[in-house]
Amino acid sequence: MFHIFLHFLVPAIVAVVFFRKTLLKAWLIMMATMVVDLDHLLAVPIYDPNRCSIGFHPLHSYYAIGVYVILLFFPKTRLVGIGLVIHMILDYIDCFM
User: Fold this and answer.
1) Parent domain of 49
2) What Pfam families does the annotation carry (predicted)?
3) Cα separation of 25 and 1, whole Å?
4) Quick check: 25 pLDDT over 90?
C-alpha cells in the first residue's frame, strides 16, 4: 500500500520542486504515466506480491525503460519521461522489499 502512495507522492514532490509554475499540469501528466501498469493485465496471475515488475512486464522491460530515459532529453516529452522513470525506479525499489 505504501508503494502505491509513493507513486502519487514522489511526482507531487517533483512537481512542487521543479515545476511550481505548472504544478497541477506537471503532476497530472506524471500521474497519467501510471497507465503503464496496464501491462500487468497480461500476466497470470495479474497480481503477484512476490513478482518484480521490472523485466517481467512488457512496459517494464529494460528496452522500454531505455525509451523512457530518452524521453527525458526532449522538452515536449520530458514530463512523461520523468513520470515513467519515477514509476520504474519505485517499482525497482519495490523488488527489494
Assistant:
1) 2-94
2) DUF6122 (PF19617)
3) 25
4) yes
- DSSP summary character for residue 52: -
pLDDT beyond 80 at 41: yes
Average pLDDT over residues 69-87: 98
CA dihedral over 83, 85, 86, 90, signed as positive or negative? positive
Which cell is 75 given? 522538452
C-alpha closest to that of 82 among 1, 21, 19, 5: 19
Q: Could you tell me the pTM of the whole model?
A: 0.93
Query: 72: which residues sit within 8 A by CB, 6+ positions away?
Result: 78, 81, 82, 85
Contacts of 42 (CB under 8 A, 6+ apart): 57, 58
Say which DSSP state 77 is in. Answer: T
State residue 87's pLDDT score.
Answer: 96
Domain total of the chain: 1
Mean pLDDT within 57-79? 97
